[in-house]
Amino acid sequence: MSSTTVYGNIEDEIKSIFRSRLQTQILLSLSEENKTLLQLREITGSSSQAVIPKIRILESSQLVERDGYNYCLSLMGKVLTSKMQDYILAFGVFNKFKDFWAKHHLGGIPEPLMNDIGDLIDSEIIRETTEDVSKVLSTYFGCLRESRQAFVVSSMTSIELIDAVIERLAQGIPVEVVITRDLFLKLDKEPYIEKYYEMMKFSNFKLFVTEEYVRVGTTVTENFLSFGLYKKDGMLFDLTEQLFSFDKKGLKWGKKFFQFYKDRSVMIEMP
Question: CB 3.0 to 4.6 Å from 258: which of 151, 183, 227, 250, for a disulfide?
Answer without folding.
Answer: 151
